[in-house]
Amino acid sequence: MVKHGQIFSADTQAVFYNWKQKPIQRMLDFDYLCGRSTPSVACIVQPGSSGGFQKLFFGSEEIAIPVYGSTPAAIKSHRAADVFINFASFRSAYESSMEALQQPSIRVIAVIAEGVPEGDTKQLVAYAAKHNKIVLGPATVGGLQAGAFRIGDTAGTLENIVACKLYRPGSVGFVSKSGGMSNEMYNVLSRATNGLYEGIAIGGDVFPGSTLSDHCLRYQNIPDIKLIVVLGELGGHDEYSLVDALTSGQINKPVVAWVSGTCAKLFKSEVQFGHAGAKSGGASESAQDKNAALKAAGAIVPESFEGFEGIIKTTYDQLVEEGQIQPQPESEVRAVPQDLEAAKKAGKVRVPTTIVSSICDDRGEEPTYNKVTMSTLITGDYNVGDVISLLWFKRQLPKYATRFIELVVMLCADHGPCVSGAHNTIVTARAGKDLVSCLVSGLLTIGPRFGGAVDDSARYFQDACDRGLEPDEFVEDMKKKGIRVPGIGHRIKSKDNRDKRVELLQKYAFKFFPSTKYLNYAVQVENYTLQKAANLVLNVDGCIGTLFLDLLHSSSLFTEAEIADIVKIGYLNGLFVLARSIGLIGHALDQKRLQQPLYRHPWDEVLYI
After folding, report:
1. Which of 153-157, 274-278, 511-515 has the lowest mean pLDDT?
2. 376: helix, coil or strand?
3. Nearest residue to 161 (alpha-carbon basis) of 117, 196, 203, 202
4. Rg (alpha carbons) of the chain, rounded to whole number
5. How confident is the model at residue 275, as a pLDDT?
6. Distance CA 516, CA 521 (A)
7. 204 pLDDT exceeds 80?
8. What's the CA gap between 432 and 590, in Å, rounded?
C-alpha cells in the first residue's frame, strides 16, 4: 500500500451494498454538513432487487438514490463511484466483496461485518494487494476524511461530528483498530490539535484487510497530514510493521502512538479483550513490548493512556511553533435539518395527526380492540360477535346481542348463485380475475335493490313506530310519497312460502331480547301488506333492521343520538356486507376450483329491440 496516498476527497462517491437507511442518511447528512455539492452515495445495491430507488434527504431536499439488483449493474451505471461500502452479513461478505474488487473502477472497499472467516479475508487481502486496491475491515466502522467523505456510521452522531470539528479538515492522520475508540480519539484530537484530516478504523479481526502501518505509510504521502496518531492494541504483530517503517525511514513525520491493553499483565491467565485479535499470545504481543518497540523506533509514546492527549498536544504545539502547521480560523458550521421524528421526540415541533382512530391501538406489546387485548379475546369467552361489538359499537354488548350478530352473519352469508351479487362474482371469477376483484364485483351490486335496505328499513320503521302511525297509515303514506316500504316484499318468498331466515331470527329475538317493540310493529305492517299481495312479506332486510333497533334500545347501552348515528352511518348494511362477503368469496373459489370457462350470456335470453 506504500504507493497509495489520499484515498478520499470531497468528490468521492460510493456504492452502498445492502440497503440500510440510517447509515446512508448519516453519510448524506455529513455531506451536507461539509458543504458537498453532490451526495457521496451514488447508488445502492440490493441483491435480487428489480431496481427502482430509495428516497432520502440531502439537507432539506428529498432525493432519489437509484437501486440495482447486482454490483456489476450498479458499477456499469456509476463508473465514477470508486468506494464500495459492504453492509452484507458475514455469510455473504466474501462473495460480495470479491465481486466488488473485481470491478476495475472500485479502488477501496469497506467490509463492515464481523465474523468473516479468516481464510476468506486472506483471499480478499491477496487479491487487493495484487491489484493495488485497499480493503478496510472486516469488523470495521470504516473511515472518514474530515470535510469530505464518511463511511456509514463512522464518528457516530451528527452532534459528535460537529463537536469533533470533523466538518472541516485538520492536520492529523489517525488510525486505529477500534471504531469505538476512534470516536473517542476524534474528540481528543479536536481538543489537542486543529483536528483530524483522515481517520481509519482497520477493524478488530485477527487478519484485517489493511494494517496500521499501511495507513501510516499513506499518511506519509499526504502533504496536508503533518502529524500521525496511532492507537494500537495488544495481540498480533501489526504494530511491528510500523516499527520497521519508522526504523527504515519510510515514515519521517511525527508519530504519536499508544498500544492499549497494558492491564492484561495484571491477569493470571490470558484475557480476551473486545476484538477477536485483542489477546496476547506471547510477550512480543503484549502492549508493554509494543509500546517499548515503538518508542525505540522513534515514535512518541506516553507513559500511559492518560498521558496520550497531553503528548499529542505538546507535539502539535511544537509543529505550530515550527511553522509546519498554520491553524485556520473556525468557519460557521452549516446546519443540517433535523428529521421530523427526531424533532418531535425532542419536543421542538408540533405536528398534527393525519388519522384519528378510536377503536383500536397497535402501539403496545399487543394490539387492542377498544382497549381489550388480544390475549383477553383469545383466552376469554369472546367470539366474532364480540369482536364486531368492540370494533363497530365500541363497547361490549350482552351475550344475547353478540350471538344475534353471529346469527345474522351466518344466515346472510349466502343466498345461492342466482342473486345479483353472487352472479357478478361468478362471472368475474370465470373471467380469470383475482379473488379481490371477484369479491368487489359482487359487493358493488349491494344497494337499494339488493341487500342494502337494512338501514332504510330501520329508519322508516322506527320513524313510523315512534310517531305512533298505524300500520295502514304508514303503508299508505309511503305509497303516496311513491316510496316502497323497505324491508317488505320478496321476489320468491310469500305468505305460504316464508323465508326461513326471518323465522329463525324472529324465534331467537322473541326468546332472548328484552323487548321486540320494533319487530312487533314490522309484523303488524306485514299483516297489512299481505292483504294487498302474497309476496309482500317481511324480508330478511326488514327483520334485521327492526331487530337491531330492538337490540340497541333494549340493551340500555346507547343514547337516542347514538342510535340515530348508527342507523344513519350505515352500521346495519355493514353487517350484511360482512356476512355476504363470506358467500361471495366462496362462489369465487368454487368457480376457480371447478375451472369454469369464461361466461357468455345466451343470446336467446336477450330481447334485441
Report:
1. 274-278
2. helix
3. 196
4. 39
5. 47
6. 9
7. yes
8. 13
Quote the CA–CA distance of 533 and 489 in Å, as a whole number. 9
Taking a C-beta distance cutoff of 8 angstroms, is the pair 396, 390 a contact? yes
DSSP string over 444-467: TT-BTTBB--HHHHHHHHHHHHHT
Average pLDDT over residues 229-238: 92
Q: Reply yes or no on whether the pLDDT at 240 is more than 60.
A: yes
pLDDT computed for residue 491 by the predictor: 86
How much of the chain, in percent, has pLDDT values that exceed 90? 87
The count of C-alpha atoms lying within 13 angstroms of the C-alpha of 120, restricted to the half-sphere facing its C-beta, is 19
Q: What is the DSSP letter of 386?
A: H
How far, in Å, are 70, 105, 512 from residue 99 at the CA level? 10, 12, 74
**Ramachandran region, residue 23 (left: φ > 0; alpha: ψ -120 to 50; beta: rest):** alpha
Other CB atoms within 10 A of residue 127 CB = 15
- pLDDT digits over 287-312, tens only? 999 999 999 999 999 999 999 999 99
Strand order across the 134-136 sheet: 53-58, 61-68, 41-45, 14-17, 83-86, 108-111, 134-136
Q: What is the pLDDT of residues 245-291, one digit of tens each?
A: 999 999 999 999 999 988 756 555 566 555 444 455 567 889 999 99
* Helical (H) or strand (E) element with 373: strand 372-373
Contact 422, 446 (CB under 8 A): no
Cell numbers for 199: 481517520
C-alpha span between 201 and 176 (Å, rounded): 5
Q: For 116-152, what is each residue's pLDDT tens digit?
A: 999 999 999 999 999 999 999 999 999 999 999 999 9
Of 233-237, 363-367, 387-391, 495-499, where does mean pLDDT reach its minimum? 233-237
- pLDDT for residue 2: 39
Do residues 273 and 286 make contact, with C-beta atoms less than 8 angstroms apart? no
DSSP 492: S
Indicate if 490 belongs to the active site. no
Sign for the pseudo-dihedral over CA of 94, 97, 99, 102 = negative
Cβ neighbours, 10 Å, residue 2: 12
| 53 pLDDT above the threshold of 80 | yes
Q: Is the pLDDT of residue 449 over 90?
A: no
209 C-beta neighbours (distance < 10 Å), count: 27
Q: Exactly one of 4, 275, 415, 553 is catalytic; name it.
A: 275
* Sequence-ordered list of residues with C-beta below 8 angstroms from that of 424, at least 6 positions apart, any chain: 441, 442, 444, 445
pLDDT at residue 165 tops 50:
yes
In 95-171, where do the E strands start and end?
108-111, 134-136, 142-145, 149-150
Cell 483498530 sits on residue: 177
Query: What pLDDT does residue 268 have?
Result: 56
Ramachandran region, residue 508 (left: φ > 0; alpha: ψ -120 to 50; beta: rest): alpha
The one-character DSSP state at 307 is G
**How many residues does the structure list for the chain?**
609
Helix (H, G, I), strand (E, B) or coil at 361: strand
Name the average pLDDT for the chain: 94
> Strand, coil or helix: what is 304?
coil
Amino acid letter for position 426:
I
Q: In a 10 Å sphere around its CB, with 0-12 CB exposed, 13-18 middle and 19+ buried, how is residue 598 labelled? A: exposed
Contacts of 300 (CB under 8 A, 6+ apart): 254, 255, 256, 257, 311, 315
